[in-house]
Design a protein that fits this description.
binds manganese (II) ion, two-stranded antiparallel sheet, binds pseudouridine-5'-monophosphate
Length: 300
């Protein structure tokens, strides 16, 4: 793929000098959290990456230009813009051709990160297979099977069918590593009860696996799944009741396609008050920290 990229100078020099860089997505800024929380959260994620000595590269499309790393003014512009296209693979050329603003999902961010030469990417949760709708499979899963970027996340979002999501990742050849855990984290909560067969305990463990995959020229990415910190967890039993209610509302409203995930995230957050938000922010910052450590281990 040949993308015309606009690098933030700080990201450009870090890449030139082989220093640690972490890619960050922008859909969570435009479709994941309401304003003004979204901006505050985006800035906190970037600050967390910096505290670990790595450079954050938030990826987004502004008026048709693809950016790798945003200035604070650009972040603010995106966080307050009213029409932003949610961009997975199929959407990127459309947003560019029409000079639109576009927020990259996990899939879209992986594509740009790969072109930019960024190997590690931090997010909250990836998309997956939706509950009761096994044909609604996020483009994130397909991108993970073809684009070599390591995605650090807290598992797939709890609004999804986690067992089916794991099955699809297995079929598509995507390694799922548990970071200091033996089971798949369930986004808001630490436990899904679904065992993983690869556990890693340090950033160096992950870096070694990335390097071997590179040396073998494997296509496809990898998932590093990190449990939300215990003190900020929203226990699965409680989350489940609210998620079930949000899904019932989704079905009765007839919402479909790319609007499903933003709708469910918004409903869960409204119905649960501060609980889901607290867990969501905590896991985002924690993932940013771990991703920065992995990026650092890769360049050491
Ligand atoms: N996780 C969050 N908030 C989000 C998303 C994930 O906590 O906003 C976004 C990511 O960008 C992810 C996308 O790639 O939702 C998945 O959307 P879909 O299910 O339509 O593929
Ligand atoms: Mn979907």
């Amino acid at each position: 793929m040949q993308l015309n990229l606009n690098f933030h100078p700080e990201v450009q020099s870090a890449l030139n000098e082989n220093r640690a860089v972490v890619a960050l997505e922008s859909t969570l800024i435009t479709h994941g959290f309401p304003a003004p929380d979204n901006l505050e959260i985006a800035r906190a994620i970037e600050a967390t990456v910096r505290r670990q000595g790595a450079v954050p590269a938030t990826i987004a499309i502004l008026e048709g230009q693809i950016y790798v790393g945003l200035t604070d003014e650009q972040l603010e512009y995106l966080g307050t813009a009213s029409h932003v296209r949610k961009c997975a693979r199929r959407d990127i050329p459309i947003a560019v051709a029409r000079k639109e603003n576009g927020a990259t999902t996990v899939a879209g961010t992986m594509i740009v990160a790969r072109c930019a030469g960024i190997k590690v990417f931090a997010t909250g949760g990836i998309g997956g297979v939706h509950r009761g709708q096994p044909f609604d499979e996020s483009a994130d899963l397909i991108e993970l099977s073809r684009t070599p970027v390591t995605v650090v996340c807290a598992g797939a979002k709890a609004i999804l069918d986690l067992p089916l999501t794991l099955e699809v990742l297995e079929t598509r050849g995507v390694p799922v590593l548990g970071y200091q855990t033996d089971e798949l984290p369930a986004f808001y909560s630490q436990h899904s009860g679904l065992p993983l067969d690869v556990r890693v305990d340090t950033p160096q463990d992950v870096a070694r696996i990335i390097k071997v995959r590179e040396s073998m020229d494997f296509d496809g990415g990898m998932l590093v799944t990190v449990p939300v910190p215990a003190e900020d967890e929203w226990p699965a039993e409680k989350a489940q009741i609210i998620i079930d209610q949000a899904i019932a509302e989704l079905v009765s409203e007839g919402i479909a396609g790319k609007a499903v995930t933003p709708y469910l995230l918004e409903r869960v957050s409204t119905l649960s008050g501060s609980q889901s938000k607290k867990a969501n922010i905590a896991l985002l910052l924690n993932n940013a920290r771990v991703a920065a450590q992995i990026a650092q281990a890769l360049v050491e």
